Amino acid sequence: MTDTAVTGNNFLRTIIKEDIASGRLVGELVTRFPPEPNGFLHIGHAKSICLNFGLAEQFGGRCHLRFDDTNPAKEEQAYIDAIQEDIRWLGYEWSGPIRYASDYFDTLFEYAQHLISTGHAYVCDLSADEAREYRGTLTEPGRNSPYRDRSPEENLALFAGMRDGEFDEGSKVLRAKIDMAAPNINLRDPIIYRIRKVSHHQTGDNWCIYPNYDFTHGQSDALEGITHSICTLEFEDHRPLYEWFLAHLPVPAQPKQYEFARLNINYTVTSKRKLKMLVDEKVVDGWDDPRMPTIAGMRRRGYTATALRNFCDMVGVARSEGVVDMAMLEHAIRDDLDKNAPRAMCVMDPLKLVITNYPEDKLEQLTAPGHPNRDDLGERTLPFGREVYIEREDFREEANKKFKRLVLGKKVRLRSAYVLLAESVIKDAEGNITEVHCSYDDGTLGEDPADGVKPKGVIHWVSASQGKQAVVRLYDRLFTHEAPDRGGEEFLDHVNPDSLTVLENCWIEPGLADAAPEARFQFERTGYFVADRREHCSDKPVFNRAIALRDTWGSKESGE
């Protein structure tokens, strides 16, 4: 077992240790991650990925990637490609080739024939509405289908006809024959095959019947030698069915299913159907919109794989459902970026300063550390001239003593540069300030100059002549309600109208224009940002805010 740092609780790790000690697990641990290729992966899947791949790593085992591709009507190759990319970005690699449930369609068909031959499955002609009526309720037993007592020979012939396309969709299904009076409704003769005359992205038109998830899942696990089949808690009631199939089929192995609590975060929805609705109704700009809780969206927003893995570890693995505060995820993001993101300066609402006693033709190349605590990130060059941009909110004509920035008649330091004294302003016809005229003291270069001048505040800036113009996107939480999907379809009523603000006239240090896509920075005094992986280029720099320097959700800075 590898010595992987772990901080969160994980009852599955304890189970595996006990299985090893008792001899139930003799060979290597084998887990699997089995996503449906019908959408992009989200933060909940990230927890499952970290769990399945992480356990395999910790115990020196293997983790398979297997696509549960049993519903071709909703599946696309684009989703398959995106899922692979997400897993690799999180830092994991699956064992062996990519596997698909469709790889086992021939074997699953034979297994279905075996159940029919042994009297444990039958072809049923009930319509969907009739089947619901016969199924019963949580308090009333179901009734046997009138087609339940067909002979194995008749069922085999009908099932072959389903396979050969002789029947219409919805006209017949294959059902397991278990117990229509079972307290667990999943055991009331569940459907295991449906007619779907839809082309499949892996098998083409070879099949017009497809197995359902419950029938496919356990048998695929057995065929792959999975030792620990880990699912979320909604599959707990399906475990008796999982075990029933394994007990009644000639499978090569007997995997065991274990359930854990899914990851629920406030101010978030993770239902694939609802995420798809956000995309289809253009509430967001696609599955990788930085406001989406998809792995692709979080990556584009500037979250790091390390932070997501740390977050999943912090949350732990439990048996009981709960809701995790979004602040825990945001803490993990800030913690990682604070330690690793180089520093830089960006002015988002520019106000020009003219340093009247600085030579017009002079251009200095000042230096600043890449990170205050990381010598390995080196230094960066800051061109400095007579005109610079500062944030408009960093200047006031008058202010009280709590305001630690630039005020007429007062001094402030430009970060890694000089101390300035604000002397006058220029205004337009509407009374808006267009320029602030200042003077500087050339003996005040650096954070601790020899003359001992210590102004009250330090503000960031960018050279007006050498800085680069950029687009900055400020992202906030997508929903204003902490449980946005509690009301079903009304979750769209809780979309935050201020979840995206686009600033077109920002100014950045010139070096940032050449930053690689996905390069992350702390814009000093502003927040953590990432060069957009899709649109950022030197001709048009585009930066997305990953997260503010501190939690300002629901509040506004006073500027004091």
TrEMBL record:
Which parts of the sequence belong to the Glutamyl/glutaminyl-tRNA synthetase class Ib anti-codon binding domain? 341-441
Mention any one GO cellular component term assigned to this protein in its UniProt record: cytosol
Q: Which domain of life is it from?
A: Bacteria
What does the entry list as the binding residues for L-glutamine? 68, 213
Q: Where in the cell is it found?
A: Cytoplasm
Q: Name one GO biological process term.
A: glutamyl-tRNA aminoacylation
- Subunit info? Monomer.
Which protein is depicted? Glutamine--tRNA ligase
Please tell me the species this chain comes from.
Answer: Zhongshania antarctica
What are the top taxonomic ranks of the organism? Bacteria, Pseudomonadati, Pseudomonadota, Gammaproteobacteria, Cellvibrionales
